[in-house]
Write a sequence for this structure.
């Protein structure tokens, strides 16, 4: 059982359902969002990347929007191909125009097997809008099976923890327009000045 977003490649966060059991799956969604006003800040400073934002530094899966899990999957896949000279579509997306296995030993394969060498380093940041599902599974055996069922039976009850979700929002304290208005308000408060007064002073000089 996978509980995730549709355009998200995931190798983890799965739950096994066993035959002749009743599973209660409780889902608690958490939404983290950064306002679009933060686009004026570099991704490294705001520590997130919008789904449609172009970036050559952070990797993404082909055909998928940017997502931190997709970025980590692309990084892991690239690492495996470079050092093991192989790929497994069971865990990674299929590589176009490339064989899954190559029996020629790559020169860096020995380096990969050296435990004292540098490991995999993935430079991935969060996506600016993240919907995370916290899943709690409670499984109990079915003691009395229906007589008209021959094969194994699995009951799954999926529900939300509550009718609302937790949302964390990040916004700019000041945009450039708000900052200019704030500075103008301070000048007007302490100096009694306005843009018209400044224009008159400059004209008089």
């Amino acid at each position: 059982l996978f509980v995730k977003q549709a355009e998200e490649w995931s190798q983890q966060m799965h739950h096994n359902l066993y035959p002749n059991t009743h599973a209660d799956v409780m889902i608690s969604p958490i939404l983290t969002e950064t306002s679009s006003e933060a686009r004026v800040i570099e991704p490294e400073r705001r520590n997130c990347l919008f789904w449609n934002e172009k970036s050559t530094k952070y990797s993404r899966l082909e055909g998928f929007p940017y997502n931190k899990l997709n970025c980590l999957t692309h990084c892991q896949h690239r690492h495996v191909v470079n050092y093991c000279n192989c790929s497994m579509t069971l865990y990674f997306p299929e590589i176009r125009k490339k064989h899954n296995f190559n029996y020629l030993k790559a020169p860096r394969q020995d380096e990969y097997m050296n435990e004292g060498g540098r490991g995999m380093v993935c430079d991935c940041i969060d996506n600016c809008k993240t919907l995370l599902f916290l899943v709690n599974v409670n499984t109990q055996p079915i003691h009395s099976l229906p007589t008209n069922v021959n094969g194994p039976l699995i009951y799954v009850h999926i529900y939300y923890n509550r009718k609302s979700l937790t949302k964390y929002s990040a916004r700019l304290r000041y945009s450039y327009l708000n900052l200019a208005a704030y500075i103008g308000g301070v000048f007007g408060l302490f100096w009694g000045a306005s843009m018209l007064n400044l224009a008159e002073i400059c004209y008089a000089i």
User: Anything to note?
Assistant: Residues 68-84 form the longest helix (17 residues). The chain has two domains: 21-172, 174-204. The mean pLDDT is 76. The radius of gyration is 27 Å.
